[in-house]
Every structure is written in C-alpha cells, then in structure tokens.
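Example S7 (structure tokens).
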C-alpha cells in the first residue's frame, strides 16, 4: 500500500530527448483517463486524500491515495473494476477489504460520503519502461497530457520514477543522472493537488510552514539528525515546487528560505552526529539561500521599505526598474546542481543510519547548544561596538540557536523552552530589522551616483539603524542577564526539572 516515487517537471524542449531515452518505439504506452472525486467543500483535499476512478487502457481502476511519512512516499490502495460498458461512479464499498482505508475515509468524510462528485479530470498518454539498477527495479514514466475542469485546463508534462522493488536510495541516486541530463526539476505536487487548484481557480496552495518535530529520547543522535533534515525538507519541497514553476507568492519564497536556514542550522549545529553527512551540503545550501535572498530582498524593498520611505516624505514613489527584478527566483530550483542537492538530502533523511552505541541524546543536545550559546553571549555584551559583519554573525548565530532548539525541544520541558524560544525570536526579529535597514542603505547608496535624490533613503535607513542598534543592545542585555537561563549553563538548564 506504500507507493514510493519521485516526480519531476520536464522542460518542453527536453521531451523528445526523454522519449528517446525511454526508447519510445519499444517502450510500453497507455492512455490514462482519470476522474477525481471530492465533496463540495473539499474535505478530501483538506486532508491530502484523493479518490480516483481511472480508465487504464480498457480497464477501470478505483484508487485511494493519501500522503505518506515523506514526500517520497504515498499511501495507495487500488481496486480493479475491469471493463465496463458504462462509465462507473465512485463506490466506497469496493474498499471494504481494506479496513484502514475505510477508517480513514470515515474519519475524513463522516456522513458526507453521499456528496462526493467528480471535481476534475486528467487525460495523459503514458510512455514507460522498467529498468534495473544494482538489483533495484525502477519504472520510468513520461506523462504527457492535461488536467481539466469544464471551465479550464492545464498541461501536464512530467517524468515519474517509481520504485517497483529494491532500494529507495538507489532510486534517488538514479534520478540524479536524469536531472543533470534533461534539466528535470523536482515537483512534490500530486496530480490531485494540481487538479484541486485548477477546480478552485487558484494558482497555488498556501505556503508550507515548519511543523513541530518530536524526537524520541531513546533514538541515536545519527537518526535524530536525519529526522531534522527530513522535517526541514517537508517544509521546503512544496514551496520549492511553486517557486520553480514561477507562480510563487512572496510567502512561498520566505518559507523556502526558512526551511533552508533550518537545514543549515541542523547541519552546522548537529552535523557531527552522523558520519554520512557530506561536508559540502551546508555550503551548497548557503548558495541556494543566497540566490533566493536576492528575490527576498527585492520583495522587502518593494512591499515593506518603499511604503515607509514614501510615508516619510521620500522624493520618489517607486524603485528603478533597471535595478529591480534582475533575478528570477524560479531559476534557483530549476538548476540541476540544486535539484541534486535536494535529492542527496532526501536520501540522507530516509536512511536508517549506521548502528552505533546510543548515548544520551538529551545530554548531547544540551552540550552542543551550550557551545553555540557561549559564542552568542560573548557578542551580546558588546553589540553596540561590534562591526557590521560581526552583528550579522551574531544575528545568524541567534537564528541558528533558535532553530536548533526547536529541533530538539521535545526533549525538554515545554514551558521553559517556550520562554527561551520567545526571547530568541524577539532578538531574531530586531536583528532582522537591522539587517534589512543595512541592506536598504547599501541598495540605495549604489543608486546615488545616477540620482542624488536617493540620498534621502540612505539617510533615513542610517537613522533607523541607529535606533535599532540601541533597541537590540537593550534586548540582548536582558537576554544575557535572564535569570532563568543564566550563563554559563543556559542551555543545560533546559534539561533541569
């Protein structure tokens, strides 16, 4: 019942090459015509469940699908109906032999099963073949067609790699060669999600935010790190899909950057917990974050800074076109090197890890957090006199400490952790505001050569920075002197009862 697959979007100009790679003349082909069902208020979609009736060649198949533990897995239950002279309608009683499916449907639908109706259709031509790689059997499919409602339609052109038997890690490794050769980009959205968006006339689902991670105190530190990376990927990959298609809202970009920062924090703080960590990952994630950061800075300048400047009497009402929008965020997640990076991290996150003597996870976490905390405390005591790059370093360390504590927070008493995270979030916000003002100063100062009116923005941003330095210094001093988490054992105190 567990389907393991990876799906990628395919550039139109690479479709012919992929068909050649599949040896289309000898590959199997089948037309797949599907109808997807839901209630009028989309109860199934809200719970990431799909009900599908699909004509596969001449045979009808009814399918239940639901999200799995990771974006690599989906729960799937198929019931073959066979040939039918008339188009069948959805019949939930066909799942009677599968109690777990019936229980899930009952929990989601309640007494609304009778309101199920067709919401959208898909019609694709599938070209596929099964290959063997190191004893692992992988089905490669090219789906070419469309998803449609009576009012609108959207093209589908995607490549799927489904694990038929063998190792999921081999599957992931195999897909990387296709990514490099055919410029595929990773898309965790299902056809059901795309169809639901089309049916409701929406471009995107809401941005995916981080979900709480609860670690088992008895697990190894190696497994704990893998779960941290998996948790951050669960936040990143849905947002990355909308960014890569160039339909993302600023919040998708923001949440993608948060997810990347969380992964970098996990690798920087806890990276030594696993010998399987590739030391190049953290730097590669940094490159990815910086590329997205340009787009994020542009959004901040346009949506947050510019209105404040105008309100303060700026002699300009817009940003210069030649300086705004130079980088397209979607290009970031289409780059093969970035797609392969995400696949490597995904492979790491699903691996069971190496067996080793388990140590006290809580103690290891506290010791690790202590070391980072001491560095923050040292700079917090002299924030006003720090150089700009040192303040930036402190901001990044405070952010890293916050994300690191969030990852291991389930190991500690919730009340104490909540208080501590609240303090760190406040510090992160004020230091983030300071960073935005420094970015604003740098941006507008570069424009003054061509237009001296932009000196207004430079002076305004410098004034804002002066006040923020004062406010941040006071907040950092309170944090440093906080009796609940006194120096030097502030992180260790999290574990005290």
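Recovered sequence:
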């Amino acid at each position: 019942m567990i389907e393991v697959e990876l799906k990628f979007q395919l550039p139109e100009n690479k479709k012919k090459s992929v068909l050649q790679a599949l040896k289309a003349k000898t590959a199997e082909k089948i037309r797949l015509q599907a109808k997807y069902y839901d209630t009028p208020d989309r109860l199934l979609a809200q719970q990431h469940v799909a009900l599908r009736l699909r004509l596969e060649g001449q045979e009808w198949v009814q399918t239940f699908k639901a999200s799995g533990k990771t974006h690599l897995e989906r729960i799937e239950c198929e019931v073959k109906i066979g040939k039918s002279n008339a188009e069948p309608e959805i019949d939930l009683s066909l799942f009677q032999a599968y109690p777990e499916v019936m229980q899930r449907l009952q929990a989601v639908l309640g007494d609304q099963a009778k309101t199920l109706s067709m919401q959208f259709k898909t019609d694709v031509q599938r070209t596929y073949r099964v290959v063997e790689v190191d004893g692992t059997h992988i089905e490669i499919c090219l789906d070419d067609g469309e998803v449609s409602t009576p009012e609108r339609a959207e093209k589908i052109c995607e490549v799927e790699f489904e694990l038929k038997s063998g190792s999921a890690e081999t599957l992931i490794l195999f897909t990387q060669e296709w990514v490099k050769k055919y410029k595929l980009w990773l898309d965790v959205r299902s056809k059901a999600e795309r169809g639901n968006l089309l049916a409701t006339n929406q471009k995107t689902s809401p941005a995916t935010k981080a979900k709480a991670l609860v670690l088992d105190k008895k697990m190894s530190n190696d497994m704990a790190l893998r779960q941290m990376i998996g948790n951050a990927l669960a936040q990143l990959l849905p947002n990355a899909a909308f960014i890569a298609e160039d339909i993302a809202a600023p919040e998708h970009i923001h949440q993608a950057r948060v997810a990347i920062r969380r992964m970098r924090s996990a690798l920087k703080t806890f990276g030594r917990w696993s010998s399987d960590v590739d030391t190049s990952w953290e730097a590669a994630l940094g490159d990815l974050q910086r590329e997205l950061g340009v787009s994020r800075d542009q959004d901040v300048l346009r949506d947050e800074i510019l209105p404040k400047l105008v309100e303060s009497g700026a002699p300009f009402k817009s940003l210069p076109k030649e300086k705004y929008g130079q980088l397209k965020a979607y290009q970031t997640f289409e780059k093969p090197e970035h797609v392969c990076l995400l696949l490597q991290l995904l492979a790491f996150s699903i691996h069971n890890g190496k067996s080793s003597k388990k140590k006290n996870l809580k103690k290891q976490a506290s010791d690790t957090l202590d070391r980072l905390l001491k560095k923050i405390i040292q700079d917090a005591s002299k924030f006003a006199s720090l150089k700009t790059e040192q303040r930036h370093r402190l901001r990044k360390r405070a952010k890293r400490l916050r994300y690191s504590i969030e990852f291991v927070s389930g190991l500690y008493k919730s009340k104490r952790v909540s208080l501590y995270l609240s303090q760190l979030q406040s510090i992160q916000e004020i230091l983030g505001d300071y960073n935005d003002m420094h970015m604003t100063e740098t941006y507008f100062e570069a424009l003054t050569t061509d237009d001296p009116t932009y000196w207004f923005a430079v002076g305004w941003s410098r004034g804002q920075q002066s006040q923020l330095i004062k406010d941040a210094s006071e907040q950092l001093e309170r944090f440093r002197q906080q009796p609940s988490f006194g120096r030097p054992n502030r992180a260790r105190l999290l574990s005290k009862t």
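Notes on this example. The first strand starts at residue 2 and ends at 9.
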